[in-house]
């Protein structure tokens, strides 16, 4: 199984050579369209010499537009055939809505430097204030824009573009890959990377930069993959690779042998698998910038609510559908424990036609990846009509649910393409944990010391998920033994019950197999009658307090001939004798286990569906965003 650290946020392209720059970077962007985006833009450094057929007098020309690439192309007019070093960008909004001013490239106040970015700048608020105090004007709401002004400020001081970029980067914290083009050095592109992916495509008398390999494949198959901490200068005749601090780096190019379709998926056979492997990064991005140096949770999104307002909510109502509903079930348990008040979680389609006990004393939490699910949106509107305050947890910036909420805490999963949700689920759960911890702290139900321990355990989750992915071969073995089975039960108690529901949904969605989840204690009230040899029963037993109870359930299933697969924390051996198969997961704090224990089951669902030849990324009868009732 392939392992890498892909990333699916914004698309970046850059070109320097003798082809028309704008046309080339747009063509490259089109090859990254599968990643999803909400706005796009290009910048080209025009030399202003008549021989190259350019107008503009040695400057940077920038065109950007909200919407699809076709909208941008409609705006390009005579820019379309411009020559010169060029950069292009498709944006997946994180900070600031999907508008034209927020689209990249961002440009310096003197209009001579343009910059594109993929990632998140954590300290942008503070830098923005500092730059504004120094007279810099901002034209967008993005975190990115601070970087281009930092470059301009440094360039004014040292007159050296490369040094100015290096200097600017010393001020930012967070994750980024960036590409810069400037009128000061119109034949050169500069790029740097800390966390988000970036590659250099090496051509003959031309060179390319891109966030993903498919962008360069029609032009070259010789590629250098940049690593965290790299800084690269690219001209039409070559590239110079150094560290951010300027130490030379030698890295051999490799030749891409994948076809274009495989390359789109980062070498993975399906988007689902790619997205499963993106989870450590997605969780880290969702936490990024939201944990203070003192190990408290910072959620500026909720600043508008005073301590008094938050304390005045006597109940919490969560509404969501499908996977997002399962994330809500985890939150219910966690929040009730922390906040000591009733938290109801309802399927949005039931809530909207019920007679819910919701009013001005209710905090309504709306959870949705797409932010467009019709039932969830209708439930939000019903809750609002009844006077509730709406806080949403959404992945798509600027979506309808986000727009209609009083506050939005965005997950940072990046675009999720496979219909079956994976990275959106884990990031929803993490965002809901953070909101719960924040409220408990603000309401003084949690001491700073207790909060610190929670926060430390939260920040351990990306590594725990990475470690599950590192054991994927064991899941592959298991899948090969189970691929012919046709009936699956998923059992758990407490947090594990919520995960059982999610794991069962994954299998049924993509493999079309009968997969049912039950609260383990319910089996003896009916479903146990269905257990017979050949039936697979996946038993989650990660909660120490409930382990003995789960062990009894495992024995009940085993005695009736069912095949038991037990999910237990590392070091737990008490189920070994009773279970037919054991999957061990890293031991994490019980409340946080849903983020970790779901991962081997996502993999199992994927591998069974693949063995059965199912259409994984677009399962029959299902849509990614359910915008009808
Ligand atoms: O976009 P949303 O999170 O609102 O979507 C809700 C459900 O439609 C979604 O989670 C669905 O259940 C997924 N296909 C599950 O994998």
Task: List the main descriptive attributes of the protein structure presented here.
629 residues; Glutamine Phosphoribosylpyrophosphate, subunit 1, domain 1; alpha/beta; Rossmann fold; binds 5-amino-5-deoxy-1-O-phosphono-D-mannitol; globular
Structure report:
- With 629 residues, this protein is of the alpha/beta class.
- The chain folds into three domains: 11-120 and 176-267, Glutamine Phosphoribosylpyrophosphate, subunit 1, domain 1 (4-Layer Sandwich); 274-459, Glucose-6-phosphate isomerase like protein, domain 1 (Rossmann fold), CATH 3.40.50; 466-611, Rossmann fold (3-Layer(aba) Sandwich), CATH 3.40.50.
- Helices cover 35% and strands 22% of the residues.
- It contains 20 helices and 24 strands.
- The chain has an eight-stranded antiparallel beta sheet, covered by helices on one side. Strands 5-6-7-8-12-13 form a six-stranded antiparallel beta sheet.
- α4 packs across α5 (161-171) and α18 packs parallel to α20.
- It starts with 10 loop residues before the first strand and ends in an 18-residue tail after the last helix.
- The model is unreliable at 1-8 and 49-57 (pLDDT under 50).
- The chain binds 5-amino-5-deoxy-1-O-phosphono-D-mannitol.
- Residues 321-324, 368-370, 373, 376, 419-421, 505, 509, 625-626 line the site of 5-amino-5-deoxy-1-O-phosphono-D-mannitol.
């Amino acid at each position: 199984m392939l392992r890498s650290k892909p990333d699916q946020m914004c698309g970046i392209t850059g070109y320097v050579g003798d082809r028309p720059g704008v046309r080339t970077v747009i063509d490259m962007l089109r090859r990254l369209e599968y990643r999803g985006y909400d706005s796009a833009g290009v910048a080209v450094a025009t030399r202003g010499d008549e021989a190259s057929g350019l107008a503009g007098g040695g400057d940077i020309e920038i065109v950007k537009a909200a919407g699809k690439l076709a909208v941008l192309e409609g705006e390009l007019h005579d820019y379309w055939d411009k020559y010169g070093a060029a950069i292009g960008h498709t944006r997946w909004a994180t900070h600031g809505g999907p508008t034209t001013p927020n689209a990249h490239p961002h440009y310096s106040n003197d209009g001579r430097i343009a910059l594109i970015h993929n990632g998140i700048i954590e300290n942008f608020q503070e830098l923005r204030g500092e730059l504004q105090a120094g007279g810099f004007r901002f034209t967008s709401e993005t975190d990115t824009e601070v970087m281009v002004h930092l470059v301009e400020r440094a360039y004014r001081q040292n007159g050296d573009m490369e040094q100015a970029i290096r200097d600017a980067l010393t001020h930012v914290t967070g994750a980024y890959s960036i590409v810069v083009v400037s009128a000061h050095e119109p034949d050169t592109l500069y790029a740097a990377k800390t966390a988000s992916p970036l590659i250099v495509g090496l051509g003959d008398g031309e060179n390319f930069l891109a966030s993903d390999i498919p962008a360069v494949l029609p032009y070259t198959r010789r590629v250098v993959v940049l690593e965290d901490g790299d800084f690269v200068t690219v001209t039409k005749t070559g590239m110079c690779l150094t560290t951010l601090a300027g130490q030379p780096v030698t890295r051999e190019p490799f030749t891409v042998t994948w076809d274009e379709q495989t390359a789109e998926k980062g070498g993975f056979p399906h988007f689902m698998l790619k997205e499963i492997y993106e989870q450590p990064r997605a969780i880290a991005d969702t936490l990024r910038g939201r944990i203070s140096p003192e190990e408290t949770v910072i959620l500026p999104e909720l600043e508008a609510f005073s301590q008094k307002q938050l304390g005045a909510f006597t109940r919490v109502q969560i509404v969501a559908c499908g996977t997002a509903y399962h994330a809500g079930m985890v939150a219910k348990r966690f929040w009730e424990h922390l906040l000591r008040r009733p938290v109801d979680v309802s399927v949005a389609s039931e809530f909207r036609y019920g007679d819910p006990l919701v009013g001005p004393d209710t905090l309504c939490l709306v959870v949705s990846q797409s932010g467009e699910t019709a039932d969830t949106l209708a439930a939000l509107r019903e809750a609002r009509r009844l006077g509730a305050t709406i806080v949403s947890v959404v992945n798509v910036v600027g979506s309808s649910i986000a727009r209609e909420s009083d506050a939005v805490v965005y997950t940072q999963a990046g675009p999720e393409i496979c219909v079956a949700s994976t990275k959106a689920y884990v990031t929803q759960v993490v965002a809901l944990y953070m909101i719960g911890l924040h409220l408990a702290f603000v309401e003084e139900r949690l001491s700073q010391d207790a909060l610190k321990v929670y926060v430390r355990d939260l920040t351990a989750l990306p590594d725990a998920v990475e470690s599950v992915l590192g054991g994927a071969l064991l899941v592959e073995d298991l899948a090969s033994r189970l691929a012919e089975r046709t009936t699956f039960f998923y059992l758990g108690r407490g947090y594990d019950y919520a995960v059982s529901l999610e794991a069962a949904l994954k299998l049924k969605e993509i493999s079309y197999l009968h997969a049912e989840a039950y609260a383990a204690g319910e089996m003896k009230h009916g479903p146990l009658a269905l257990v017979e040899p050949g039936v697979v029963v996946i038993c989650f037993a990660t909660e120490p307090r409930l382990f003995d109870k789960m062990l009894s359930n495992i024995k009940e299933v085993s005695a009736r001939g069912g095949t038991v697969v037990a999910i237990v924390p590392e070091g737990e051996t008490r189920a070994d004798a009773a279970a037919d198969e054991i999957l061990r997961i890293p031991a994490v704090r019980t409340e946080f286990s849903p983020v970790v224990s779901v991962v081997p089951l996502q993999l199992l669902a994927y591998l069974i569906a693949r063995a059965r030849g199912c259409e994984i990324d677009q399962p029959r009868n299902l849509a990614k965003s359910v915008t009808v009732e």
